[in-house]
Amino acid sequence: MLTIDAFSIYIMLCILAPLLGAFTLLFLIIFEKRIDLLEKQTREIALERELQTALYNQLNQEIQPHFFFNTLNSILSLARLDRKTELINSIETLSKLLKYKYQKNESIITIEEELIYTGYYLEIQKVRFRDRLKFHISIEPNVKQAVMIPFMIQTFVENAFKHSFEKIPGEAILKIDIVQKDHNVLVSVWNNSTNLAQQFQKNEGGLGIGNIEKRLNILFPKEHTAIQLSNTGDGTTVTAIFPFKSLEEM
């Protein structure tokens, strides 16, 4: 026969059991909905990342024909002037550039690799401009392996030739400086022309500076990036600012 205490406990269990079952069921429903929400958010993030990657790669592909078109124009100028030896040297340099480019067809590259591209282009232009062209490249050793978007320095250099050196007679001086400042990389390209407005048009057929800004924003979506243009009186400087990151951090 049940005692009063045992009967009281039995009554409490009968009352609490449905409540505990209801709370457990409610918890499972909320937990399941939370899991579904997290899975949905994960899918949306993955989709957004895929879309951003596709856009980034598309922008990279846009800038490459622009670069090769300008390089071929430089070589064509040598052919028209019947400068055969220089023409052959330029074609050999272009061959090296193409070989290097298709061996390393990544969406991001190191600054050191970008400077190889740029060096090939400057070799071709040196043949074309001869003693008129003078250029200097300065880079801090610790930033050589920092990652960047392809063809950024190349575009800055091309703009200097296209909108300045090819149109204005006289000395053509170009300086490339790459340094680390705090947690950022600063890439500056200076030339001795003050033709700022024409050199760096943001809406140049969807290419140029506008393209670079978009790609920097995609590559470093949550960090500060910038393109700064300045006229110092003795020339024009374009500076790109982006986070210092190695390939392992990407």
Silhouette: elongated
Number of beta strands: 7
Poorly predicted runs are 202-206
Cα distance, first to last residue? 73 Å
Oligomer: single chain
Radius of gyration: 30 Å
Account of the protein in words:
By secondary structure, the chain is α+β, with helices and mostly antiparallel strands. 58% of the residues lie in helices and 17% in strands. β4 (172-181) and β5 (184-191) form a beta hairpin. The strands form two sheets. A five-stranded mixed sheet has the order 2-4-5-7-6, with helices on one face. The protein has a two-stranded antiparallel sheet with strand order 1-3. It is built from six helices and seven strands; from the N terminus they run ααβαββαββααββ. The N and C termini lie far apart (73 Å). The protein has helices at residues 4-80, 84-103, 111-129, 152-165, 196-199, 208-219; strands at residues 109-110, 133-139, 147-148, 172-181, 184-191, 226-231, 236-243.
Kindly summarize this structure in a few lines.
The chain has 250 residues and is of the alpha+beta class. The chain has helices spanning 4-80, 84-103, 111-129, 152-165, 196-199, 208-219, and strands at 109-110, 133-139, 147-148, 172-181, 184-191, 226-231, 236-243.
Task: Give a topology summary.
Blueprint: H1 4-80, H2 84-103, E1 109-110, H3 111-129, E2 133-139, E3 147-148, H4 152-165, E4 172-181, E5 184-191, H5 196-199, H6 208-219, E6 226-231, E7 236-243
Parallel strand pairs: 2-4
Antiparallel strand pairs: 1-3, 4-5, 5-7, 6-7
Helix pairs in contact: 1-2, 1-3, 1-6, 2-3, 3-4
